Amino acid sequence: MIIFDAFLFSIVHALPNTSLVIIPAFLTGIADLFGGAILLIIGVLIIVLLVAAAIVLLPAIIVAVLVWFLTGSFFYAGIAFLVVALISLVAMSGD
Question: What one-character-per-residue DSSP string does 9-28 give?
Fold first, then answer.
């Protein structure tokens, strides 16, 4: 009985390490490759969009920082940021 219990115990410990669906190893490798490529493309697109947004909003950020240094007010800096950002967005949409 002890040998049977040890056998069942070894099976229970071996089950989490085995996959329940039998898929050839090359298919999982291809899926990993495509998944990694898709995630890489999404990551690059996000970085490009963030850099583009930072470039577009750079004048507004500079003006907001200057207003904050001159007045010490976050409220006036926020208003300056919004005004310059709206002006730059309107100017870029006209192109």
Answer: HHHHHHGGGS-SS---HHHH
